[in-house]
Amino acid sequence: MNLKNTDFLKSILSLLFFALFFSCVEEEIREVTLYDKPHTEASASRTDIKFGEAVDFKSTSFKHLTTTWTFAGGSPSSSVNPDATVVYNNPGTYDAKLVVKYIDNTVETKLFKIIVKGIDPPLPYGGTAIAIPGTIEAENYNLGGEGIAYHDTEEQNLAVQNGSPRYRTDDGVDVQMGNNITNISYTEAGEWTNYTITVPATGIYDFDFRVASGDTAGGKSIKLQLVNPNTGVATDLGQTGNFPNTGSYNTYISKNVTGVNLTEGKNTFRVLFTGSNTNLDKINIKVSVPPPPIDGVGIFTEKDIVSSNPGIAPPPNGGNMAITIVTTNTNHGNKALFYHFDPTGNGSPQNGFALSHMDLTVSPYNATAYNYLNVAVKSSTPKKVRIRLNTNSGNYWVTLNPGNPAYGMLWDGQWHELVIPFSQLLRDGNGAALSTVAAAKSSIKQFTIRTDDSDYSTAPNSFDYYIDDIYFTVN
Questions:
Q1: Domain 125-287 class?
Q2: Same fold yes or no, 125-287 and 294-473
Q3: Average of pLDDT values for 93-101?
Q4: What confidence tier does 462 reach under pLDDT thresholds 50, 70, 90?
Q5: 19 or 192: whose pLDDT is higher?
Q6: Fold (topology level) of 39-117
Q7: Other beta carbons within 10 Å of 143
Q8: Domain 294-473, CATH
Q9: Can you say whether residue 73 is alpha, beta or left, with left for phi > 0 and alpha for psi between -120 and 50 degrees?
Q10: Three-state DSSP state, 86
Q11: Which of 219, 284, 399, 400 is the most exposed place for a label (fewest CB within 10 A)?
Q12: 277 CB-near residues (< 8 Å, 6+ apart)
């Protein structure tokens, strides 16, 4: 072989080797772009709060399609926005969950536990809840201070400033110490004290408030309220009502709140003063004993009565009246009657008056054993109205007159329980008394509501009356 050709081939091979070598090196160091996975970052500003406080939730997602928050126990309860502020109004432990769906259809979930704390447990005076049935001394309200155990208008104890020895040193409730009685005094509207009791069994209890007032206008009503153990929110259980001057601020009488439902275990109740000039000595609590049935006969009532002769209710529309049974805002139970002046829609238009008769199931009925007509009435239309009993021997009535209220009736939109003696139900409104006419008393057929001729009006809505609890009694 020619040596020149051999050298030439070697040169060609060397060039090919170097070309291949450097070509492979370039391929190995070529830059590669990797796939970024979708992801989410989420946070809660706090996970341990008090009820009524808020938590700020934030999230940042990469390559997401949807973002959905759900907030158990929170307000709002859900959100599709990445950020949300949520208020928790009730104590408890709740889940806040974020679900993110990505563009590759994968799903990621983030979970937060939110602990919502309630109020601190009450601290009974002396360290032990008061056992009932028993007596609570007004001055022994709970420990804890202003806004927790009590609320008083001023920081100072006004009783001490006016010469009373000091009973407690921990706060400013106006506790007054006398020779024989220690009581709360110098009360103002909106002041309150809390007491924690132990109830032995779920049931109905009666509260006897021992109160006094030396003011000429008397004392103001005291509200009894139940305090929610988690939130501190107070719910009304009843109130004593205002009371007259008792003779002095040291002369005490009883004002009662009865029929209070309490649950077994610890309960915290609040005494809320609605006005001034009311001293409170103590509260006696006992198990409620239901009263015996009323000695009478029920016509339209859900009260516990010995016997009954139901009226046919509702009475048929007629005499310019439309009568319906209502089931809310009754005087007692679940039903009352609403008498509405409706000359065009009542089915039996009349001229110059409006009336409606309720027939008795047993008619005529012998009411010789009874002496009183009981009826609950509510109205805010101050028009005269006749309350009437129809008998085989004529019609007997009284006229309720806004200009001269009687039997406890007021036209204030509130229920009033009227007790009308048979001796004042007069034939045709001015004749013989029902109590003196044996033939009438033994033959009662209907209970009737009627407008009075002297006060009749054709104006719409001029005569609206609610009637409930119609019955006869001996006493």
A1: mainly beta
A2: yes
A3: 96
A4: confident
A5: 192
A6: Immunoglobulin-like (2.60.40)
A7: 19
A8: 2.60.120.430
A9: left
A10: strand
A11: 284
A12: 187, 213, 214, 215, 217, 218, 219, 220
- Helix or strand or coil: residue 198? strand
| Sheet containing 394-400, strands listed edge to edge, beginning at the edge strand earlier in sequence | 355-359, 444-451, 385-391, 394-400, 426-427
CA distance 149 to 146: 6
* β-bridge pairing 130-131 and 53-62: unpaired
Q: Is the peptide bond before 122 cis (omega within 30 degrees of 0)?
A: no
Q: Is the pLDDT of residue 9 over 90?
A: no
Contact 324, 314 (CB under 8 A): yes
pLDDT band at 342 (very low <50, low <70, confident <90, very high): confident
Q: How far is CA 448 from CA 313, 407, 466, in A?
A: 12, 18, 13
* Rg of the chain over all Cα atoms, to the nearest angstrom: 40
What are the boundaries of each domain within the chain?
39-117, 125-287, 294-473
- Say what the pTM is: 0.57
| Selection from 183, 191, 184 nearest residue 154 by Cα | 191
Mean pLDDT of the chain, nearest integer: 91
229, 122 Cβ separation under 8 angstroms: yes
The DSSP output letter for 167 is S
- DSSP symbol at 20: H
Residue bearing tokens 């109004």: 89
- The H-assigned helical ranges of 123-273 are 158-161
Residue 221 pLDDT grade (very low, low, confident, very high; cuts 50, 70, 90) = very high
Euclidean distance between CA atoms 223 and 208, whole angstroms = 12
Task: Calculate the dihedral angle through the C-alpha atoms of 344, 345, 349, 352, rounding to the nearest 10 degrees.
Answer: -60
Hey, how many other C-beta atoms are within 10 angstroms of the C-beta on 247? 12
